[in-house]
Amino acid sequence: MALYFAERPCGLGKMWTLLIALLALGALGAMPARGEILIATAGPMSGPYLTFGDQYLRGAELAVEDLNARGGLLGQKVRLVVGDDACDAEQAVALARKLAGEGAVLVVGHYCSGASIPASKVYEEQGILMISPGSTNPRLTDEGGDNVFRVCGRDDAQGAIAGAYLAERWGGKRIAILHDQTAYGEGLASETRKELDRLGVSPIIYAPYEPGLRDYSPVADKLAAAQIDVVYIGGYSTEAALILRQAHDMGFPVRLVSGDAIITDDFWTIAGAAGEGTRMTYFPDARKTPQAAETVAAFRAQGYEPEGNTLYAYAAVQTWAQAVARAGSLELDQVIAALRSATFDTVLGDVAFDRKGDVIATSFIWYSWKSGRYEEVQ
User: What gap in Å lies between CA 179 and CA 256, rounded to an integer?
Assistant: First the structure.
């Protein structure tokens, strides 16, 4: 707070100055000694992928609430702001600049890799820590600065698992790989194809499709004409579900294998019975960890089921808070040093990071859609 004192044209000038100064000091004494710490969560809070944005919001919101209930951090309360990037690169960059201007010290986000990667450059320039709960493209940490971390796995690991499964289960069949041309979808499809190539299996089709359409019958026709047995889709739930359902509607019961973006009820809402048996790789279900039991109960008491990325967003806040406490400072360099040198107790279990900012020892496992619910494949 800046104090300004004006000269008075009479002999009482010094007295006025003293009175104003005393009043100002009194006002300062009534203010908190420190301000609040501002952090943000950023992701698709609108648009076709808002389910994932809502998971980020729910997870970060409860983590901040719990943190403040325990007294905050470094003697200060933490305040969460929410940013919508709609999974769009330009909006993500604009949002990142806005959050920097507002003084955020941490961003829990983004979700779509195509938004996370360009936004991360802004955070690097502005000295803001970024921890993503769900962006899986390897480029995020391969090309990102020291300030970039994630608590989820990478698509090169996910693609290797998917490629190995396709080669083992469908190696003698006709395989197609499709992708939506996004950083996430194309990256995941590329990693899956890379593993198939390594294992000596060649897909019959490797092709892009345009995201955001409602009619994918030309894509379904192409799969049917090639008599594809299984299609691997690198992309998001809406389009994958439409492609699958429209293929089944035309009497072509192709099987679908995909990645982590299919873990959403939106997929089954669109695909319906055509989605039965669809397999997808995803992170381990954090709801099953002993460390998450109390937090899961708190979510359920709110009438909310913390599936998907919810607990990963919660863990991102937890990890940051523990690193700040360990560093005894909000200074970025000190927090980064703490993140790279310690193991953190979170709802995901123990979390530690490698030199790139990738979480150590996070694997992908298989899930399958069955009767409108997804379940872990044993």
Answer: 13
3-state secondary structure of 213: coil
Answer yes or no: pTM beyond 0.85. Answer: yes
Element (H, E) at 97: helix 89-102
- Confidence at residue 30, expressed as pLDDT on a 0 to 100 scale: 32
**pLDDT < 50 regions, the chain:** 1-33
Residue 363 has which token pair?
A: 């694997």
Q: What is the pLDDT of residue 34?
A: 53
Written as six digits, the tokens of 124 are 């690097």
* Rounded Cα gap, residues 275 and 283, in angstroms: 20
**79, 37 in Cβ contact below 8 A?**
yes
Residue 363, pLDDT score: 82
Chain centroid to CA 203: how far?
30
Quote the pLDDT of residue 362.
72
In three state form, how does the secondary structure of 135-203 look?
CCCCHHHHCCCCCEEECCCCHHHHHHHHHHHHHHHHCCCCEEEEECCCHHHHHHHHHHHHHHHHCCCCC
75 touches 34 (CB < 8 A): yes
Q: ∠ CA(254), CA(255), CA(259), 5° rounding? A: 135
Selection from 293, 284, 254 nearest residue 367 by Cα: 284
Number of H helices, E strands in the chain: 13, 14
CB 261 within 8 A of CB 350: no
